[in-house]
Amino acid sequence: MYKILEKDKLASKIYRMVVDAPRVAKHCQPGQFIIFKLNEKGERIPLTIYDYDRKQGTVTIVFQQTGESTTDLAQMQTGDALEDFVGPLGQPSKFVTEDIEYFKRNKILFVAGGVGTAPVYPQIKWLHEHGVTADAIIGAKTKDLLILENELKKLCNLYVTTDDGSYKRKGMVTQTIKELVKEGKKYDLCVTIGPMIMMKFVCILTKELNIHTIASMNPIMLDGTGMCGSCRLSVGGEVKFACVDGPEFDGHLIDFDQAMKRQQMYKTKKSCTIEEDTKHDGSKVCGR
Amino acid sequence: MVDVLRKVPVREQDPKIRVTNFEEVCYGYNQDEAIEEAARCMHCKNAKCIRGCPVKINIPEFITKVKENNIREAYQIISESSSLPAICGRVCPQESQCEGKCIRGIQGEPVSIGKLERFVAEWACKNKIIPTSAVRKNGHKVAVIGSGPAGLTCASDLSKMGYDVTIFEALHQAGGVLRYGIPEFRLPKDKVLVAEIENIKSLGIKIETNVIIGKSITIDELLQEEGFEAVFIGSGAGLPIFMGISGENANGVFSANEYLTRNNLMKAFREDYQTPIAHGKKVAVVGGGNVAMDAARTALRLGAEVYIIYRRSAEELPARKEEVAHGKEEGIIFNLLTNPTEILVDDKGWVRGIRCIRMKLGEADISGRRLPIAIPDSEFELEVDTVIISIGTSPNPLISSTTIGLDINKHKCIIADKDNGQTSKKGVFAGGDAVTGAATVILAMGAGKLAANGIHEFITKKYQ
Ligand SMILES: Cc1cc2nc3c(=O)[nH]c(=O)nc-3n(C[C@H](O)[C@H](O)[C@H](O)COP(=O)(O)OP(=O)(O)OC[C@H]3O[C@@H](n4cnc5c(N)ncnc54)[C@H](O)[C@@H]3O)c2cc1C
Ligand SMILES: Cc1cc2nc3c(=O)[nH]c(=O)nc-3n(C[C@H](O)[C@H](O)[C@H](O)COP(=O)(O)OP(=O)(O)OC[C@H]3O[C@@H](n4cnc5c(N)ncnc54)[C@H](O)[C@@H]3O)c2cc1C
Ligand code: SF4
Ligand code: SF4
Ligand code: FES
Fold first, then answer.
1. Are B266 and A44 within 8 A, CB to CB?
2. Is the Cβ atom of B439 under 6 angstroms away from ligand 2?
3. pLDDT at residue B121 above 90?
């Protein structure tokens, strides 16, 4: 069992939890994720590692309540425990393994949307600790959904935008990218994490702007170890498993349209039934 | 009158009913039936059956004990060679192993060795006979990676020799393929698998789930930081192979691993479990092995019409005979000598059909298998909404890529000595599917057993 040591609410339906998981804490790196399973009957759900404390043996996650499993997780309180918590999974971000001098010479832009702000935090923090100050754009639908502004402000040059203009800049993150570039900023590398649709448009724009872009993908996953293939994506015409080859890929090579369709595979699971199927209750059926 | 040429028939669930549930298909023998079947064994001097069994169970001896209604002794005899008899009795391809060599089978049907083994194991379980643990622990720690049949066997043998064994398992439950791959209707999880795993735990073996070697911790750390003196790798061959044809990433295309894991490990067939599964109406399963049969029969039970698409003929189907027969009784439609060329996708990204080509068998290759050749202009379309790919798996590189000095071959299989499991890295042993590529439960067990002896010898030598 993996005990929840702290829990707090960052915004409407967005929570932060510190979990006791020494084996994960000892080895994890920015860019990696975990899979948790709440109880015997729960699903295996992937979440990015937000922060970690190797000494305390803890891992912090930030998640948005979007469906059944994340709602169940949101009900858990400090002192409760998760039945399963496995990781670290996936490959660390490139800069962890590459020469830090490269990142000192080059200008990096992070572009995050919604709860995707959480997974960029450890990357920005890591770079900051290694003497690199990046630019970062974080976007939210509206002011109430914005998270981690204060934490990030200290670690990077932060630009905040809301779709409805209820706070700071107005418009989508792509709008801010355009504005920054127009102001004369030059970027060599962009890292984007957020809803797939946002990453798709960020990548279309950065391709035009000729900025190499890395996107962190969040397809449907099951085991997270390369065993099932449910997380497969087309990247540059090749099939890749996001859980072992990723989750970060060259954003200009990803087939986002296919990835978005695949993400819908089980979306309507609770509403769809198969008419002719009388023997089996159709309530857990996939949707189309 | 008993017909000595025929096996005592085994009771099974009615095909019409069993396609609507996930209960076990075969009920196995009761005591009377087992004794009657045991009487068919001729206790051959030159018992060829033993030679067919990869772990060399003393078959005539255990069957004689069954005949004498001394099931306890029969269990002891089996236990000398096998630690998972309830499982092997159910899933071994007996027709090509023990029963394939049985002298009784020269005329008429062979002795039903598998069913007798299963009966003995169940009797022992019911009567709470558990394997005996080592008298004295020797204080040496060994790590076992993977809790499939190879890992479980290696761990249990080492533990009986006195070692302090910890099994590390990547998934949240132990059992390997026995847990996530083979369905409930063939291998009941609570009744058989969990019971066997509990037996093994009762020997004092620790099982740590949710630990991925190569990610959560490396083999070098196990050896250098956690005090293990040797490591056994029984990590299986879990990586699914896809065909590389157009449409394979469409919604509704699954690897058999995904489909079966959702259903078996995650229990998607049960309403009260949260993991979803695709209930197709028309499902095509590509492949002809045990995995394909399991996926097909699972889809059938989830309410679909199911086609098997296999490129060779019925004779070459690699699945156990019993599974093919059961699948036929249950209504699976076999499209033999057929190979997929494309998966057809609708405008929303979902499967709408599969394009196939007819095949014929050509000359035999070096391995003696006749190669399937496409017949020109024989392509046709089959309307399906789900495709399950079951054409094989290979070992996962997670361990080999994170362990310095561990050699693998061109198929990504770990290279290990076939007599003692020793790999190219000192103190590291391997066996099962991780070494051979996808094979069988009993071969994995056999390899686990040999490696346990190899590890014992290695550690003993160190202190001489
Ligand atoms: C590598 C990775 C990292 C992630 N990191 C975070 C994070 O840090 N914070 C966060 O809030 N979310 C993160 N996600 C997304 C998170 O996993 C999904 O929000 C979650 O699976 C939704 O589950 P649910 O049951 O609450 O929602 P539901 O809407 O009820 O789930 C719908 C179904 O979709 C399936 N599903 C699986 N993965 C996804 C997915 N990625 N998106 C949509 N549906 C999915 C589930 O199996 C479920 O059956 C990440 C995903 C991945 C793959
Ligand atoms: C659906 C299906 C049906 C089958 N039917 C039959 C049958 O009827 N008869 C038969 O004889 N054989 C059958 N087989 C084959 C048989 O199950 C395998 O040959 C056998 O299970 C191999 O055993 P193993 O111990 O080597 O590996 P596995 O059973 O694959 O176990 C390996 C274990 O290691 C774990 N693991 C992997 N990597 C790591 C890591 N890095 N860290 C920690 N743990 C790890 C895995 O999660 C898994 O639990 C079937 C296989 C499948 C998939
Ligand atoms: S272990 Fe398998 S091969 Fe050996 S006797 Fe039992 S069923 Fe036959
Ligand atoms: S070969 Fe057949 S008949 Fe002879 S001992 Fe073995 S099981 Fe009995
Ligand atoms: S989640 Fe199963 S292979 Fe990636």
1. yes
2. yes
3. yes
A216 lines ligand 1 (CB under 6 A): no
Q: Cβ atoms within 10 A of the Cβ of B135, count?
A: 7
- Chain A positions touching B174 (Cβ under 8 A) are none
Enclosing H/E stretch for A46: strand A45-53
Quick one: which atom of ligand 3 is closest to the CA of B92? 2
CA B432 from chain center: how many Å? 10
The DSSP element (H or E) to which A234 belongs, if any, is: strand A232-235
Structure pTM? Answer: 0.93
**Closest chain A C-alpha to B162 CA, distance in angstroms:** 27
DSSP string, B318-364: -S-HHHHHHHHHHTPEEE-SEEEEEEEE-TTSBEEEEEEEEEEEEEE
Interface contact flag, A225 B217, Cβ < 8 Å: no
**ipTM value of the model?**
0.91
- The type of residue at A275 is E
Using the structure block, give the residue that is written with the tokens 């071994």.
B92
**For B189-223, how does the pLDDT look when each residue is reduced to its tens digit (9 = 90+)?**
989 999 889 988 988 999 999 999 999 999 999 99
Written as one letter, the residue type at A82 is L
CB contact under 8 A, A232 and B275: no
Ligand with minimal distance to A46 CA: 1
CA distance B455 to B463: 13
Q: Is the dihedral of CA A227, A229, A235, A239 positive or negative?
A: positive
What are the beta bridge partners of residue A51? A60
* B84 in Cβ contact with B152 (< 8 Å): yes
Asked if B212 contacts A24 with a C-beta cutoff of 8 angstroms, the reply is no
Q: Residues A135-174, buried b or exposed e (16+ Cβ, 10 A)?
A: bbbbbbeeeebbbbeebbeebbebbbbbbeeebbbeebbb
